[in-house]
Amino acid sequence: MKKVIISLDNHKSEVYVGLNWNEVRNFIPASGCVIITDDNVYKIYGKLFPDFPVISIKPGEDSKNIGTIVTLAEKLLDEGIDRTGFILGIGGGVVCDITGFLASIYMRGINFGFISTTLLSQVDASVGGKNAVNIGKIKNILGCFRQPRFVICDPDLLLTLPDDEYLSGLGELVKMGLILDYNLFEKIENNIALLMSKDADLLESLISDSVELKASVVREDEKEISGKRMILNFGHTFGHVIETVASMKHGFAVAAGMVIASGISEKLGLIGLEEFQRIKSLLEKLNLLKKYSLDDNYFQEMLLKDKKKQGSLISFVLLQSPGRAVVRKMTVYEIMNLYRSIKKQV
Length: 346
Known about the structure:
Blueprint: E1 2-7, E2 12-17, E3 33-38, H1 39-45, E4 54-57, H2 66-78, E5 86-91, H3 93-105, E6 111-116, H4 119-125, E7 130-135, E8 138-145, E9 150-153, H5 163-180, H6 182-189, H7 192-196, H8 200-220, H9 236-245, H10 250-267, H11 273-285, H12 296-303, E10 309-310, E11 313-321, E12 324-331, H13 332-342
Parallel strand pairs: 2-9, 3-4, 3-5, 5-6, 6-9
Antiparallel strand pairs: 1-2, 7-8, 10-11, 11-12
């Protein structure tokens, strides 16, 4: 078991990788707690939950909206939750986003924590304090930064994941290696068979590496003020559009976005063709690259609504090499012209 502490100016968040999730009883209050989960998680694990009121939502991105937040807030009021209350989110990225956002605004903020049940949320979504909901097809446009008191990442929970959910998490894992740590990228590349078989020791090691890397970024730039944290958006500018329009799971869409961003990086001379092909090959071996068809004009329209846009510029994340990313401010039209020049490669 590994404990990673994210210490910030006025808050401390603790992430436990490899801890049995039932140990959560040692981290939550004896009363005044409500559990938020989704129907899939509740069906598998609900009988083992701590003895508190449970609110279960419909799984998936469709639940990640302000209407869900209002409904859940009303249920918290019905349960008598006040400013001393606590919300425990048990689920993947959607449950963590909803729990964190709700806890951040309910009575101007109450404490919360997560049991992360998917690979995607263990390596990324549950760590770092970003909480958001969507408006229509625009992802994460309403949100805030607020850290959970704790996150428990128990790799044993991944054994019940459907294959596509597990693979989706691998997309974010590869991303962390590409932008922050060549050794992590190489470790994934050299252990594909073990990774695909959900080897417990390997998973705990990779999740720990990813959490440590993300924690280092969050400590330096919690609210994306200096720009360091923006590198975590690698693959997401195009990926979010693909996810929404092609109804693709997040990690697969990010994988597609990473290929595009890597292709643009190669076009700009930041990485070589061999490096681009190596990145694309790894994503193919992990079964992360799915076919999609999107009109260039629609890509452009959605990029103009990207939350990272400032005036006419988007902070676009590029690769200087596997393990090192750079943020460059570019116009949507520059990005789209580069995309059109490399789209046959991606």
